[in-house]
Design goal:
The structure holds two protein chains of two kinds.
Chain A lengths: L12 H11 L5 H19 L2 H11 L6
Chain B lengths: L23 E8 L3 H12 L4 E4 L13 E3 H10 L2 H7 L5 E6 L2 E7 L11 E3 L2 H17 L4 E4 L3 E8 L2 E7 L5 E10 L6 H5 L5 E4 L3 E9 L6 E6 L8 E7 L3 E9 L4 H5 L1 H12 L5 E9 L2 E4 L4 E2 L2 E3 L5 E2 L7 H20 L8 H26 L4 H16 L45 E2 L2 E2 H4 L4 E6 L6 E4 L2 E8 L8 H7 L5 E5 L5 E5 L4 H11 L3
Parallel strand pairs in B: 1-2, 1-10, 2-7, 4-13, 10-19, 23-25
Antiparallel strand pairs in B: 3-6, 4-5, 8-9, 9-10, 11-17, 12-15, 12-16, 13-14, 14-15, 17-20, 18-19, 21-22, 23-26, 24-25, 26-27
The chains are: A mainly alpha, B alpha+beta.
The structure holds flavin-adenine dinucleotide (FAD).
């Protein structure tokens, strides 16, 4: 553990966030799902490191206790 | 002339066993003359073990079924003496094309590595494969080898006690009983023998149907493998086109789960599909068609007392990746030498435990690979389809995404990492020839390394000294001496030496590496050999 950067790492977080949301504007749910999937795959390929990817999958799977 | 697979190849003949007063005892009885039963029988007979093969019919496989045979099985069949006719007849292919929706998204070239006797793959109808094995069996018979193939001999029951199996065989002239020190069940996925012994067969059933049509076309399609994801002519499903010898094309349509089998198999409905796929004006002849659904599963253990299971009887995979017959041949390869040593009293019967462990390792690898292909080809959830389609769309534009496209991972040989039979390793040497791996072929003069290996233990020395032969408690080891100075290319360095200046490899009769050292030391070799035969 500890390979995945979870500290603030994007310069200009607001700009990135609006760019991400803007990319989905006008898309149907299916188109948005497809875009998300392509994005995840491209980013995963960029990262490449299997250990980091596994950590990210774990980190993303937050289960909320109710 | 009828089709090859409609012609009796080993018609029923009365055996003297049927006139004996008491059941005749055989060293080995093989049930099933499919690719695996024939291979293991030929292997045993070559090594002088007496073997009787029983099959309920007298013909080769009905229709082509398996069409894609990989390099490792061809190497094994070369050791058995029948790979050449297969390779000569087989279709060699390198180019694959992948289609998604209405367009080609990319093509790939398998670009086989140089310096091997056999191609990475050939396409060949299963009935040719079996015919060549039967011809080899006939040759061995003519040489006086102790092998018998009995057609129309259906096994009705199998019972066993501590030292034998008792087999009841039905024939057109009525039933008779024989006994066997060892019974090898190669009776296919439905294995009646497995059921007779009440053994399990568990795994995952895939809810899907595939229509296979083998058609003869005069049209000049290129010798390539074409795979379609979600094409307009088979919406939401997949399709495959692959060439076999004699202008026969394998066409495979995924149908989905909820279908009417009889409707789908009507020639007029197959015709509609073919024309939608290949063009309205094609002319063809339908050679064989069938609908199958498949499962990925295996037995918990591959032997039970005197009964040993091999091939589809022991494990089943989806056809994606062509692993069924290919892995069954590797079962035969793994089993024959072990059984030979046990029968000769040179290895303990417990050596069979390693047939289980090594081939279960192989089966699990195949099941994992073919399940993954299946999940990619037929996504099981909405999100899995979203990702699958995303991979395909990206693959069209970015080469880097293509390795994720999975239309079947072609069968590669199994490396028995962690096998209890493996001995010392030398970390200066290349990973691909580590203990447990099959020997990697290379040219030696105008021959190939694998041609120098028979069905015994070998000591392969590279720029190293060693005696010409060794005897380790009755097991003989022959030396094969190679020198880098004799080579024009540097295959020995790449495939065997790595950073070592010399090498000594101990090789099993199935051509898997036992152990390797930089220099020869008799004690090391003795120790490794005894370990490799379970002593
Ligand atoms: C559509 C399709 C495509 C395939 N493609 C490939 C491929 O490309 N590559 C690949 O490697 N594999 C492929 N396979 C798998 C391959 O066909 C099988 O894995 C292979 O035939 C298994 O060989 P086997 O000898 O274990 O069993 P089988 O070939 O099934 O032989 C079993 C034999 O046992 C006999 N038998 C059964 N019961 C009895 C009894 N009671 N008494 C006596 N005899 C009996 C039968 O008559 C039969 O001859 C494919 C399969 C299918 C269906």
């Amino acid at each position: 553990m500890g390979l995945l950067k979870t500290n603030a790492n994007i310069a200009g977080p607001d700009e990135f966030y609006s760019e991400l949301i803007a990319a989905h504007e006008g898309l149907t749910k299916a188109q948005s799902d497809a875009l998300n999937a392509r994005l995840i795959l491209l980013l995963a390929n960029h990262i490449g490191d299997r250990a980091v990817l596994s950590e990210a999958l774990k980190a993303a799977s937050i289960r909320h206790s109710s | 002339m009828g089709k090859l697979f409609e012609t009796p190849l080993y018609p029923y003949r009365r055996s003297s066993d049927q006139d004996a007063h008491a059941p005749v005892r055989h060293a080995v009885v093989v049930v099933g003359a499919g690719p695996v039963g024939l291979a293991v029988a030929v292997d045993l007979a070559l090594q002088g073990v007496e073997v009787v093969v029983l099959d309920e019919n007298d013909k080769v496989s009905w229709g082509s079924r398996a069409i894609c045979f990989a390099k490792r099985p061809l190497e094994i069949l070369d050791r058995l003496g029948c790979a050449l006719p297969m390779v000569e007849r087989g279709v060699k292919w390198n180019l694959g094309k992948v289609f998604f929706d209405d367009r080609q998204i990319y093509e790939f070239n398998l670009l086989a590595e140089k310096g091997h006797r056999h191609p990475a793959f050939i396409n060949l109808q299963q009935y040719y494969f079996e015919t060549d094995l039967v011809s080899r069996l006939r040759e061995l018979q003519a040489e006086g080898k102790p092998i018998d193939l009995r057609g129309c001999s259906k096994v009705l029951s199998v019972e066993q006690d501590a030292d034998k199996a008792t087999i009841q065989v039905d024939t057109p002239e009525g039933p008779y009983t024989i006994e066997a020190d060892w019974l090898i069940a190669c009776d296919g996925a439905g294995s009646p023998v497995r059921k007779m012994l009440g053994l399990d067969f568990v795994g995952r059933i895939f809810e899907d149907n595939f229509l296979i049509a083998d058609v003869v076309m005069e049209a000049e399609f290129p010798t390539e493998r074409w795979f379609w994801f979600d094409p307009p002519f088979n919406r939401g499903q997949s399709a495959l086109l692959h060439k076999q010898p004699d202008n026969v094309w394998r066409i495979d349509f995924q149908l989905g789960w909820d279908i009417d089998r009889e409707e789908e198999l009507k020639p007029e409905n197959i015709d509609k599909r073919l024309r939608a796929m290949l063009g309205a004006d094609i002319s063809y002849q339908l050679e064989w068609s069938s609908i199958y659904t498949f499962q990925c599963r295996r037995m918990e253990k591959f032997h039970e007392g005197r009964v040993i299971f091999a091939g589809d009887a022991a494990h089943q995979v989806s056809p994606f990746g062509a692993r069924g017959a290919n892995s069954g041949i590797q079962d035969a390869d793994n089993l024959a030498w072990k059984l030979k040593l046990i029968i000769d009293g040179k290895a303990p019967a417990s050596l069979l435990e390693t047939y289980d462990s090594e081939r279960i390792y192989g089966a699990d690898e195949n099941i994992l690979n073919s399940s993954r292909s299946t999940d990619f080809i037929t996504p099981k959830s909405d999100m899995s389809r979203v990702f699958r389609d995303a991979v395909l769309e990206l693959a069209e534009h970015y080469e880097g995404m293509r390795p994720m496209v999975n239309s079947g991972r072609l069968s590669v040989p199994c490396t028995y990492d962690g096998s209890p039979l493996n001995g010392a390793d030398c970390d200066k040497m290349p990973a691909r020839t580590r203990p447990g791996s099959p020997v990697v072929d290379l040219p030696v003069g105008n021959r190939f390394l694998l041609n120098l290996l028979g069905s015994e233990f070998y000591l392969l020395t590279i720029d190293a000294e060693a005696p010409a032969a060794l005897d380790v408690e009755g097991v003989s080891v022959k030396r094969i001496a190679l020198n880098t100075a004799d080579e024009a290319e540097d295959y020995l360095q790449q495939r065997y030496l790595g950073d070592a200046s010399s090498a000594v490899y101990l090789i099993r009769p199935d051509q898997h590496v036992v152990a390797r050292w930089e220099h020869f030391a008799e004690n090391d070799v003795r120790k490794a050999l005894l370990k490799a035969i379970g002593r």
